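Troubleshooting: if your tokenizer reports a length mismatch, compare your output against this known-good record of 59 residues.
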Amino acid sequence: MHAEVGDTVVVHGRTVGTTDRRGTVVEARGSDGPYLVKFDDGHESLVFPGPDVSVEARA
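Known-good structure output:
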């Protein structure tokens, strides 16, 4: 999985009733991650891509 600064990362909920989390890539620390992501709630976290993560390219 490849993401660039400005792309949107969606972390899909892994259990029933859990909502997806969306955020913007602010730093790519490698070609395939990890990515520093600022989520919609203001929280920043390193995201290591896995099967529950998808990337939406910026327009």
